[in-house]
Write a structure and sequence with these properties.
The complex is a heterotrimer of chains A (327), B (286) and C (252).
Chain A: H1 2-20, H2 22-25, H3 28-53, H4 61-77, H5 82-104, H6 109-129, H7 131-134, E1 140-141, H8 149-176, H9 178-188, H10 190-195, H11 200-226, E2 228-229, H12 231-234, H13 237-250, H14 257-275, H15 280-294, H16 304-326
Antiparallel strand pairs in A: 1-2
Helix pairs in contact in A: 3-8, 3-11, 3-13, 3-14, 4-5, 4-6, 4-11, 5-11, 8-9, 8-11, 9-11, 13-14
Chain B: H1 3-31, H2 38-56, H3 60-81, H4 91-113, E1 126-129, E2 132-135, H5 136-158, H6 160-170, H7 172-177, H8 182-207, H9 214-229, H10 234-255, H11 257-274
Antiparallel strand pairs in B: 1-2
Chain C: E1 3-14, E2 17-28, E3 32-36, H1 43-51, E4 58-63, E5 66-67, H2 73-79, E6 81-83, H3 96-107, H4 113-127, H5 142-155, E7 160-164, H6 172-187, E8 191-195, H7 199-205, E9 208-213, E10 216-221, H8 223-228, H9 230-251
Parallel strand pairs in C: 3-8, 3-9, 6-7, 7-8
Antiparallel strand pairs in C: 1-2, 1-4, 4-5, 9-10
Classes of the chains: A mainly alpha (327), B mainly alpha (286), C alpha/beta (252).
Chain lengths: 327, 286, 252
């Protein structure tokens, strides 16, 4: 068991290294993709804690991300240095998710799903109607990071990678400690978890908060990078569903699943954006449908050996068929 | 604006809302699926009605049943081919699948219909009575919404298929043991929900402009109405729809139209916590 | 003997229905007490009221001298007030030993997950499930699931164990094994309140019997006395079963 998890850590380490080398080896376009990968990996890993380990169908990611965007932007506009603004955003979102978690985590199943989506809508509506502070529907300009564009991209990439690594380490720690054990129990049978002495309310809130702080930070960094945010983009319903889809694509509840899933999804999206701009959304939808039907456990849970064996069996069978036809 | 006027606006809006939410409520209650396609079904109904009206000039009241039947067929096919395969899976799976299907439908609509707001403009003037002024087309819309809701109520109450749907909603296993083909009922329920969504879209297009961007708004309304009214079938949707319409109408005057929507969501969140079965809902759906 | 668990005037209402009405009794250290009563008498409700699943509407539950009336189920488990379920509640996608380790980890007080696992293995050996420790919990047979429930409760190191029909659905041989197991649990110094329908189990295990009917405690005393008690026979057994039961008694 420990050998396997060490392998996981090595694979992840190499992957982080590969992404970090992008600015020195590749062009601007590739660096942008690397940032996207790091960003969505961090989001998918965060979701994994509440959605994967705990089994709560949370669609709140965009709420945390969006609040992070705005807190970071507002802090920076009032003169707080960028790095501090990012940390503040993470902390603020952590606090908000603690309060909201105490409310929505009393719900289960479909009601929790709806409640968690409602958090995204409510956050967006509050931000867009609070125009005096947030600029309302017109959005906000955020002070740009100083430096030449390639330097800024590299900096953003390293920061996003940092958040991604933190999110991953959090997943590893959760996985190996009693928190993760308790969350898995809650996933499988919440009543029984209560009966064996797990303070389910506290555990669920802890999972919810852990799944919120990194998206908060990601949002704030993103806001500094692009220099402009508005409510529609910050609290996008697509983001909030895309992130769980990424985690499920790789394998929800595993450590590397969200990493593999986010990478695959971003690459697919990139290919389709470039070639079929008009049909992008439909193609993404088709990927979701295929995922649900053909990859229900995610890429990592596929029995690769069996698939290879079956493929080779089939090709063997074909060659023997041909052989017998000749005779 | 006087009290009567605000109330009247709320009631008209509320009946339309009921019509919007009823199919969503039916699918949630019977199939235990949160149907993310619902908003796009409504938009599709609205667009089809608009384009049929714009190209032929036939009265939308005649086009409506045709559009409704088309949506019925689409709904049956989608449920039978896709959703039925995962209907017993956890909410994460079913919700994600319907969201994926919705992305496809949404994309198809933006390509073929573009996102331009479309409205069937029937200029019938206004009626003034009892200090309330109301455009006639809105009254027609309200009338149609009530007729549709009433028809669905009758179907569920009296027809064979309706009784079977209610039976499956109450207890799937028992219904199956009594010889009801549950899969067929699921597909039919989903189809009826799509039909109601299409019809609601047609009605909506006669009153307000319809655009693809509204699909998320319609879906949000359906969430709120279902939680306010509960999943009790027709009565729940009617109570929830009217409640939301009237709340939004008054809140719009007091705190501004933008905040009115927020208040709807906040009420929903509050009710989710204190009374997840809704005001007239039945217990036992999770 | 001092009372380890004491209920005074416990009532529980669901809407207008009184599922428990003014129930008072105490359980002493090292004692096995049987709780009997017809279906719907409120036996499981009583266990739920003690363990905080449905806290009492009124009255008091005192455990080891501490008022625990308003406790949550997880607090009951941590305090050493464990229970089993009529319908077994395993974590289906975990192995048998992981199931028990969860109880040991959260309900007991081990130093690490590894220590919880060791503790779980001990309890699995104790209940006779050592050989299936690494199989998935969902693949167990019914008697083994019941034993898993016992192992889970024991792993928390309970002072009091509430057994809700642990023998339901078992055949005669399996019941004998279960009886032996319950005696060995009691020998470890665990006080047991056992809900039971089988008179054989009640008579052979318990030193005292509580009879619940319509949410009220109608009789209390030694098992031999209880089965001949006029009130109990009428209320609990009914005329038909009373006859059958008395015949059984006569047969030995």
């Amino acid at each position: 068991m420990s050998r396997k998890s060490n392998l996981t850590l090595i694979v992840m380490g190499l992957w982080v290294l590969a992404l970090a080398l992008a600015p020195s080896l590749l062009g601007n376009y590739e660096v942008r993709i690397a940032i996207s990968i790091a960003m969505f990996t961090a989001l998918a890993l965060s979701w994994n804690i509440i959605g994967g380990f705990t089994g709560y169908p949370s669609f709140s990611t965009a709420a945390f991300y969006g609040i992070g965007c705005y807190v970071g932007a507002l802090a920076q506009r009032s003169g707080v240095p960028a790095a501090l603004a990012w940390v503040a955003a993470a902390a603020f979102v952590g606090g908000v998710s603690f309060a909201l978690g105490a409310i929505v985590l009393r719900l289960k199943g479909h009601y929790f799903a709806i409640g968690s989506i409602a958090l995204v809508d409510i956050s967006r509506l509050v931000i867009s109607s609070w125009g005096s502070v947030t600029g309302g529907g017109n959005g906000l300009n955020v002070p740009l990071l100083e430096g030449r564009p390639p330097e800024v991209s590299a900096l953003v990439l390293y920061v996003m990678l940092g958040i991604m690594v933190l999110a991953f380490v959090t997943n590893v720690i959760v996985d190996r400690t009693r928190l993760g054990f308790g969350l898995r129990c809650i996933d499988q049978n919440e009543d029984a978890a209560d009966m064996v002495g797990i303070d389910t309310t506290r555990y669920k809130i802890a999972a919810f908060v852990l799944s919120a702080i990194f998206p908060g930070a990601v949002g704030a960094v993103y806001a500094s990078w692009v220099g402009y945010i508005d409510p529609t983009d910050s609290f996008d319903i697509l983001t909030t569903v895309k992130v769980p889809v990424m985690a499920m694509l790789g394998g929800a509840g595993t450590l590397l699943g969200p990493v593999v899933g986010a990478f695959s999804f971003v690459m697919l999206e990139e290919i389709f954006w470039a070639n079929f701009l008009e049909w992008n959304r439909a193609i993404m939808g088709a990927i979701v449908v295929v995922l649900i039907f053909f990859l229900p456990g995610g890429i990592l849970r596929l029995d690769w050996k069996r698939i290879l064996r079956r493929l080779s069996d089939r090709s063997k069978a074909r060659s023997t068929d041909k052989g017998s036809a000749k005779e | 604006m006087g009290f009567a006027q605000i109330l009247a606006n709320g009631v008209v809006l509320g009946t339309l809302y009921a019509c919007i939410a009823i199919g969503f409520s039916l699918v949630w209650g019977v199939l235990n699926v949160i149907n993310m396609l619902h908003g796009s079904f409504i938009v599709l109904g609205g667009y089809l009605t608009y384009f049929a009206w714009a190209s032929t000039g036939i009265s939308p009241v005649i086009i409506l049943p045709v559009v409704a039947v088309a949506l019925f067929v689409l709904g049956y096919a989608l449920q039978y081919l896709f959703i039925n395969k995962v209907v017993t899976a956890p909410v994460l799976t079913t919700l994600t699948l319907t969201f994926g299907l919705d992305m496809i439908l949404y994309n198809l609509m933006t390509v073929f219909f573009t996102a331009t707001p479309r409205r069937v403009s029937l200029d019938y003037g206004r009626i003034d009575a009892l200090g309330v002024s109301m455009p006639v087309d809105r009254l027609i819309g309200m009338g149609l919404a009530l007729v549709l809701t009433g028809l669905l109520f009758l179907v569920l109450k009296t027809s064979r298929i309706g009784r079977a749907i209610v039976a499956v909603r109450m207890d799937r296993e028992a219904a199956a043991l009594m010889g009801i083909r549950v899969n067929h009922i699921y597909a039919t329920t989903f189809a009826i929900a799509a039909l109601m969504a299409g019809a609601a879209g047609a009605v909506f297009a006669m009153v307000f402009p319809v655009t693809t961007n509204l699909s998320g708004v319609f879906l949000g309304k359906a969430f709120v109405i279902c939680v306010i009214g509960g999943l009790g079938g027709v009565s729940g949707a009617l109570v929830g729809g009217l409640a939301l319409g009237i709340i939004e109408s008054f809140a719009g005057v007091i705190v501004g139209p933008q905040n009115a929507i927020t208040i709807g969501f906040l009420i929903m969140l509050f009710l989710l916590i204190v009374r997840p079965t809704g005001l007239v809902g039945v217990k036992g759906y999770e | 003997m001092s009372a380890i668990l004491e209920l005074s005037n416990v009532s529980r209402q669901f809407g207008g229905i009184k599922a428990l009405n003014d129930v008072s009794f105490s359980l002493h250290e090292g004692e096995i007490v049987a709780l009997i009563g017809p279906n719907g008498a409120g036996k499981t409700t009583l266990v739920n009221a003690i363990t905080g699943v449905h806290s009492p509407s009124s009255g008091k539950v005192v455990f080891k001298g501490e008022d625990v009336t308003k406790q949550k189920p997880f607090q009951a488990a941590r305090r050493g007030l464990a229970r089993t379920f009529q319908i077994v509640q395993p974590f289906p996608r975990m192995t048998v030993v992981e199931n028990v380790a969860a109880s040991a980890l959260f309900g007991g007080n081990p130093e690490s997950i590894a220590a919880a696992r060791d503790r779980a293995m001990e309890e699995l050996e104790f209940v006779g499930l050592g050989h299936v420790a690494e199989t998935p919990a969902s693949s167990l047979t019914l008697p083994n699931r019941k034993r898993l429930e016992l192992a889970k409760s024991l792993a928390m190191g309970p002072k009091v164990l509430l057994l809700d029909e642990v023998n339901a659905g078992l055949n005669a041989t399996e019941i004998d094994v279960a009886l032996d197991l319950i005696r060995r649990i009691a020998a470890r110094g665990v006080s047991i309140l056992i809900i039971e329908h089988l008179m054989k189990v009640v008579l052979s295990l318990s030193s005292r019997v509580l009879v619940l009917h319509h949410g009220e405690l109608i009789a209390e005393g030694p098992p031999q006395e209880m089965v001949h008690d006029r009130k109990v026979i009428e209320a609990y057994l009914g005329p038909k079963f009373a006859e059958r039961f008395q015949k059984e008694m006569a047969d030995g």
